[in-house]
Amino acid sequence: MTDGTEVAVHAVEAAGEVAGNWARAGRHAGIAGAAIGVVAAGAAAGVAIERMTVGRGMRRKARLALDAAGPYGTLRGTPGAAIAEDGTELYYEVDEQGEAPEKPKAAKGAKGAPRGKEARAAQEAQGGFRKRLQAALGRRGPAPTVVFSHGYCLSQDSWHFQRATLRGTVRSVHWDQRAHGRSERGHSQLDGTEPVTIDLLGRDLKAVLDAAVPEGPIVLVGHSMGGMTVMALADQFPEYVAERVVGVALIGTSAGRLSEVAFGLPSLGVKAFHRFAPGVLKALGSQSEIVERGRRATADLFAGLIKRYSFGTPADVDPGIARFAERLIEATPIDVVAEFFPAFAVHDKTEALVAYDTVPALVLAGEQDLITPADHSQAIAELLPNAELVCVPDAGHLVMLERPELVNDQLVSLVERASAAARSSRSARA
Prior knowledge:
alpha/beta; eight-stranded mixed sheet; 18 helices; 11% strand
C-alpha cells in the first residue's frame, strides 16, 4: 500500500472503531452509532493529512513536548475546600487583589509558549486591561470578587487566560465542579442516592460562595455547564443573588432546548443520538477501563474530535492551546462523562434568568459553536435587559481559549460596568 492509501485505511478504521463502540454498547444504538461514525470519519479525515507527513512516533513526541513546555493551566492560587450538601469536597483557589501576578511556567523558546512579538503583545494587552480595572476599582467601596465556573469535561484551568489577566487586580475565585479537576467524585453519585442535576451543581456553587466569598459583591462568570450552574444558583437562591450578585457573564451556554442541538450530526442521526446517547454512555462508563485504553489507542482521532468541537477555526489554533484543551478533556473519565450527560437534556432555566435582569450582564458565544449554538446565547440576551451580546465570528465552544483577548476585553468591561452599578446602588441606599 502507498502511504496515502494506508493513511486513509487507518482513518476509516479509527472512525469505524468509534462507531462500533457505540453500536455494541446498546442494542438500539445503531443509528446513533452511525451518526457518531460520520463525525468520527470527518475528524479522521482531518488527521489523515497529518499522518501522511508526520510519523506516529513524532506525533507522540510532539504531544509530550507540548505537555512539558506549554504554560497553560500552570497558574495556582490559595487553595480551599467547600463541602457540598452530600459531603463532597469541592476544590477552589483564590487569587487575592493586590497580590503580585505570578508568571506562568514555560520553557524558554518552547513551542506552544508565547514568545517574541506575540508575548510582548499579550503582555501589553494584559497591562492595558489591568490599568482599566485599577481605574474602575480605585474608587470608594468594596471591589467585587469574580467567581469562575467551568464547563463539562473541563476544570478551573480552562480560564487560564482570563485568570492571567485579572490576577492581582481583582479578587477572583476558580473552582472545580464535582468529579472534575481536583474536586472529589460526587458522594451521592457514588452511593447511588442522587443523580447529577444542574440544580445540584447550583447548590454546589452556593457552597463554594459561602466558603470563599462570605461577604461583598460578586460577579459570576460561567462557561457552558458553568453558565447553567450560575442559572441554577439564581433559580434556587434568588434572594441571595439579589443581595450579592452585581454582574454576570454567560459564555457559550444555554438556558435550555439542548435536546434539539444537532452537534453537527446528519439530520437522520440527531434524534437517535439524543434518544440513545445517555444509555450508550452509561454502558461505556461501565466498561471504563476498556474505553480509556481505546481512547489512548486512537489519540490522533480523539484530538481531531476535540478540535472539531472546541474551536471554530481548528487549523488556526496554536498547537499548544489545542493540546491543552485535549489534556483538559481527556482528564475526565468516561464514567464521569456518562454521569453528567443526562442532566443536559432536562436542563431548563429560562425563567430563572429573571434574577439577573437588573444587573450588568455579558452574553458571549462563538458563532461556530456546535455544542451550545450562538442562537441559544441570543435567546438568553433577549431576556436580560442589561446584557451585552457578543457573537464572535469564526470561534467555537472554547472561545475563551480560542479568542482570549476578546473575551478578556469583554470581561474587563463587565467588571467595570458591575462596579459602577454597585456604587450607584450603594449611593441610592445611603
